[in-house]
Amino acid sequence: MRLSELRNHLREQLAGGESPALDADVLLCHVLGKPRSFLLAWPEFEVSAEQKAELAELITRRQAGEPVAHLTGQREFWALMLEVTSDTLIPRPDTEILVEAALTRLPQRPARVVDLGTGTGAIALSIKSERPADTVLAVEFNPAAAALARRNAERLDLQVEVREGSWLAPLAGLTFDMIVSNPPYIDAADPHLAEGDVRFEPLSALVAEDEGLADIRHIAAHAPAQLTAGGWLLVEHGWQQGEAVRHIFIDNGFEKVTTLRDYGGQDRVTLGCLPGREHA
Length: 280
Fold this sequence. Notes:
Layout: H1 3-13, H2 20-32, H3 36-41, H4 49-63, H5 68-72, E1 74-77, E2 80-83, H6 96-105, E3 112-116, H7 122-130, E4 135-140, H8 143-156, E5 160-164, E6 176-181, H9 209-212, H10 214-222, E7 227-236, H11 242-251, E8 255-261, E9 267-273
Parallel strand pairs: 3-4, 3-6, 4-5, 6-7
Antiparallel strand pairs: 1-2, 7-9, 8-9
Helix pairs in contact: 1-2, 2-4, 6-7
């Protein structure tokens, strides 16, 4: 079968999904081991029977709702190709808002940064890729996810130390110029947990008590003791939690508290500065 015909066939099979054309192309590129430009440049390419059989299996799994990132074992984030497994959240484009905000607020001098609940390592590795002189640490509670973050760091040749433990607990005695986190923030009763990709992601990385705010409260309460004067805390949260998270930050002594919106115009990242002279 010619590539152009197979491409159209796969799109038809995935019709009704969120992004059938994109999903079909990603799976095709994965099986062929080619960039997306190859699909456009070589429409007459003959796909082998073995490749068609592999695609058929992947399409069946995708039709059952399995995330494309799990089917291919990877996801691009901040121009970094990350290994992805079912042990972690799948990195999402909106989280790049947090990375952008972090980069614009870090001091010009080499800084110390920690990413809490790092998962794949997406946030920590993105910051390190842009600021190689910074000391970047990451913390992850799940040993399998921590091992995944270390593999991503090694493969990308980015020096990020990954420590295992709960939030700031493994960092006793250390201070940072910035703490960033994409913690669990979904309420256990949220009906969206039964929809889309999140059905295949670990609940421990998604759900928090106190209507999804428990982990954010914990981080905001303990962060001041391990931030330098003028240091920043940035957390990702749900689109309806902006006001609540701002109040949590203010109650814990943070200044210049603001909420940034994601690419869809929804509240997504709240940040605040510890009182003191801001970094130069």
